Amino acid sequence: MSPSFFEIVQLNNGDYALRRIDDDSAPLVRISFSNEARDMLDDKEMSVAKAMIAAGIEAVGSVTHDIDWEDDELDVSDAQPAYTLH
Asked: How far, in whole angstroms, is CA 45 from its chain's centroid?
């Protein structure tokens, strides 16, 4: 299987999206900022969107690391993260 390459783009409606470079289907992730948030970010929406996507990828990596994908019945106590979500 060939590796996938991803890009972060700004959509026509102002949202940001993560998508595969070679695929025009629906984005994998879409980030939408309210007008109030856009005002507070002072034209730094792309930087914040990149940081949010990077944090999401890191979180998925740590969560999937703890999951035994071969086990049909996941023990809920084993799936508890080693951090507190705020």
From this structure: 15
pLDDT (tens digit per residue) in 23-67: 888 899 999 999 999 999 999 999 999 999 999 888 887 766 665
61 located within any domain: yes
Decide if 50 is inside a domain.
yes
- Alpha-carbon distance 39 to 53, whole Å? 20
Domain that holds residue 11: 6-67
Give the total residue count for the chain: 86
Count H helices and E strands in the chain, helices first.
Answer: 2, 3
In a domain, 72, yes or no: no
Query: Is 0.70 topped by the overall pTM?
Result: no
d(CA 31, CA 29): 7
> Is residue 77 one of the residues assigned to a domain?
no
